[in-house]
C-alpha cells in the first residue's frame, strides 16, 4: 500500500493545475476511506528528492517535478497525510431509454504559493447501464455499461424494491484523494 500512496502523492501534490472546483452534492454512499501518514525523513530541495517513511518504518524516495510550487515549504520531520475515499452507488435511479455510457467530471485544488502543500483531487463518474443482476440481501447490483460490466454495493438508503433486472439505471461513483503536509506537532 505504501507504493500506491507514494504514486498518489507524486501525482496529486504536484499537479500544475490550480482549479478551484466544488465537489458534487451526493447522497449517502457505501464509502471506503483509507488514510496513510508518512514522515519526511530527507529532502534535497536542489535536486527535489524527497524521502517518506511510513508508520512501519518503510521508506521510499522520489523526485518531485518542477511544477511543484510549494516544495520549498516542506522540511524534514513534516507529516504527510493522504486520505483516499471512494463512494460507490451513491444513487441508483431509473434512466430514460437504453443508451449506456459514462460521464466523468474531475476537480483539483491545491494550496496557494508559499503555503505548506495541500492538494485535493476528485472524480465523479455517472454510469448509465442495464441492471444484469440484483442481490437485495447483499445489497449489490451488477450493471452492464457500454464497455464493461461491474458489480457495486448499494447504500442502505436506496430502495432496491424499485429496481429490477433489465432496468436502465444511472449510478454515481465518487473518488477523492487529499494530501496535506503539516509541521510536526
What descriptive keywords fit this protein?
elongated, nine-stranded antiparallel sheet, 185 residues, single chain, mainly beta, 1 helix, 6% helix
Overall description:
By secondary structure, this protein is mainly β. The chain has one domain (2-182). Helices cover 6% and strands 51% of the residues. It contains 1 helix and 9 strands, in the order αβββββββββ. It has one helix spanning 2-12; strands spanning 30-44, 49-53, 59-63, 79-94, 101-110, 118-135, 140-144, 149-153, 168-182. Strands 1, 2, 3, 4, 5, 6, 7, 8 and 9 form a 9-stranded antiparallel beta sheet that branches. β5 (101-110) and β6 (118-135) form a beta hairpin. The radius of gyration is 20 Å and the shape is elongated. It starts with a helix and ends with a strand. Residues 1-27 have low confidence and may be disordered.
Topology:
Layout: H1 2-12, E1 30-44, E2 49-53, E3 59-63, E4 79-94, E5 101-110, E6 118-135, E7 140-144, E8 149-153, E9 168-182
Antiparallel strand pairs: 1-2, 1-4, 2-3, 4-9, 5-6, 6-7, 6-9, 7-8
Integer tally of domains: 1
Structural classification: mainly beta
> What is the count of β-strands?
9
What share of residues is helical?
A: under 10%
**Rg result:** 20 Å
Largest sheet: 9 strands, antiparallel
Strand-residue fraction?
over 45%
- The 3D shape can be described as elongated
Amino acid at each position: 500500500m505504501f507504493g500506491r500512496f507514494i504514486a498518489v502523492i507524486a501525482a496529486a501534490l504536484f499537479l500544475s493545475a490550480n482549479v478551484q472546483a466544488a465537489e458534487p452534492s451526493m447522497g449517502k454512499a457505501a464509502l471506503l476511506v483509507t488514510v496513510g501518514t508518512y514522515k519526511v525523513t530527507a529532502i534535497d530541495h536542489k535536486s527535489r528528492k524527497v524521502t517518506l517513511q511510513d508508520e512501519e518504518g518503510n521508506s521510499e524516495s522520489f523526485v518531485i517535478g518542477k511544477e511543484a510550487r510549494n516544495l520549498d515549504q516542506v522540511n524534514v520531520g513534516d507529516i504527510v497525510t493522504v486520505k483516499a475515499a471512494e463512494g460507490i452507488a451513491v444513487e441508483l435511479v431509473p434512466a430514460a431509454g437504453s443508451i449506456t455510457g459514462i460521464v466523468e467530471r474531475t476537480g483539483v485544488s491545491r494550496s496557494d504559493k508559499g503555503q505548506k502543500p495541500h492538494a485535493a483531487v476528485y472524480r465523479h463518474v455517472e454510469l448509465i447501464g442495464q441492471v444484469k443482476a440484483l442481490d437485495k440481501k447483499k445489497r449489490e447490483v451488477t450493471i452492464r455499461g457500454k464497455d464493461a460490466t461491474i458489480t457495486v454495493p448499494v447504500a442502505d438508503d436506496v430502495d432496491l424494491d424499485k429496481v429490477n433486472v433489465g432496468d436502465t439505471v444511472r449510478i454515481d461513483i465518487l473518488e477523492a484523494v487529499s494530501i496535506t503536509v503539516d509541521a510536526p506537532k
